[in-house]
Amino acid sequence: MSEVQEAICWSxxxxxxxxxxxxxxxxxxxxTFHLEGMAPDDFLPFPLQSAPxxxxxxxxxxxxxxxxxxxxxxxxYTRAVLRRLCADGRAVAWAAYEGSFHFDHLLTxxxxxxxxxxxxxxxxxxxxxxxxxxxxxxxxxxxxxVRAAVDRLTTDAA
Length: 158
Hints:
alpha+beta; 22% strand
């Protein structure tokens, strides 16, 4: 089992946590997350309130997608979810470990190793399942590029 797979299964079931900016603040329906022949056993959407402007206008939503079967190919599922979240307009989405989200540290170098996937509308999603790669400088550079995409989105929304 990979380091990421172990981490997302720390509490027993596997929980893929994804965030999206730019798709509004109304969560997508549960059926949206039936992808790759898989459907989460538990689905918890969280519109994130008190976002700083202009993130608030774009909408920030988190989804906890929990699977009882920890042997599923959650890497491919994560890729499909990120692709889906960025499919309907200009958005940035990412998958990260629980506890990694804070508006003051949104896709910053200090939390880069806690982000294991991302997607920017118009591009294919990237998912990294290797812990050493997540701790590397290349990954920090990539996460900085994702942060720059968020900054462009917020500038355009202003």
